[in-house]
Hints:
29% of the residues lie in helices and 25% in strands. It has 12 helices and 24 strands. The protein binds pyridoxal-5'-phosphate.
Amino acid sequence: MSRSAHPAGPRHADVLTEGHYTAPPADLNVLDEKVWARTVSRNDDGAVTVGGIEVTRLAEEFGTPAYFLDESDFRARCRAWADAFGPGADVFYAGKAFLSRAVVRWLKEEGLNLDVCSGGELTTALDAGMPAERIAFHGNNKTVAEIERAIHVGVGRIVLDSFQEIVRVSHIAQRLGKRQRVQIRVTVGVEAHTHEFIATAHEDQKFGIALAGGQAAEAVRRALTLDGIELIGIHSHIGSQIFDMAGFEVSARRVVQLLAEVRDEHGVELPEIDLGGGLGIAYTSDDDPREPHEIAKALGDIVTRECESAGLATPRISVEPGRAIVGPTAFTLYEVGTIKHLEGLRTYVSVDGGMSDNIRTALYDAEYSVALVSRRSDAEPMLVRVVGKHCESGDIVVKDAFLPSDLAPGDLIAVPATGAYCRSMASNYNHALRPPVVAVRDGEARVIVRRETEEDLLRLDVG
Ligand SMILES: *Cc1c(COP(=O)(O)O)cnc(C)c1O
């Protein structure tokens, strides 16, 4: 990512030490379509609209802060992934990115499968009518109760993550008189993050069973001999916000190598491989994500080639995009409360939300963009830091971004690409009320997750 100190223009830029900003765009009123949901645009009056509705109207009706999700964009992205991979592969939406009953129904209608990793996510999926066989159950420490329930309802697969779990799932399935389809999650020694990947990463992480040292081969050996489980394949997930397909290439090669070893040792060709998720999206104009069809072609080619050279039939591939489906479809709408110009230092713009609705900046040093959306402005760009209202100085929403210098309290600003890992990681810090998620489509807006109320807080606090 190219980050350069801004040459001239906004005051204070020269004293910023971190350099997490680029030059201001030529026109702050222009919305980069890469980072905004598809139906977002600015109308002739200068207000931004989504699904044909002005954000000013949305703020009046639903309040701020709030997440607005472009339903037609979400559905289009589901279809793009499903079409790109075709009937010979499976796309599992990673529910942890953002899950609600409406989302489950959209996924079901658009032909996607669903990854869950907790009893709560499983309940949401089943309640909204996702057929159990289209659900995969993940996690490095599923409880006995979760495993029992998953097997009882008949989930399509459980992804086994440890030696103990292989035995545990086998025992529970036998007790329930079932044979559960499972995959084994392996760590391939590849670590991918954004623009870099490391092919020789340490397996020092809590997920999966290492290929290194024959651990994964041993896991396969055990899984093949135990009753109650049917080993259908190998699973690998190498990171998040990945743009470089080279990480998947190394990972696929190593997984296929394991399939070849399994065939040589056991005479069994495992029919499936899952290459995980982690495909990157554009949070800022600097990010250039690939289209699903390019990703599908690249992954398909890699797996086909590796299998050919190992003399294996090509297994059925699955992928698990979370962020790449829901991330770009939503933005968070905030109202500006205060603006502080710290002479010679920085300008802080405080909004009515913060780390309770978007923890990613504080947690991962994530980059976001921001725009004034309630009106047009032709004022000079001003370099700002957008912060929340929480009692924590690390409560940053957007580290460095340009907003017009006539920004004033009461203006609405929006942070795009907050569909993934924002509402799902939201907290009640400072007893904040978690914002609603409002789905917008064809001129209609409806709440799919309502705003939390003070009553909700008190209901949990039983005195
Ligand atoms: C988190 C996760 C995903 C989804 O990751 P994204 O970055 O949202 O695409 C997919 N598979 C597994 C196993 C995961 O843990």
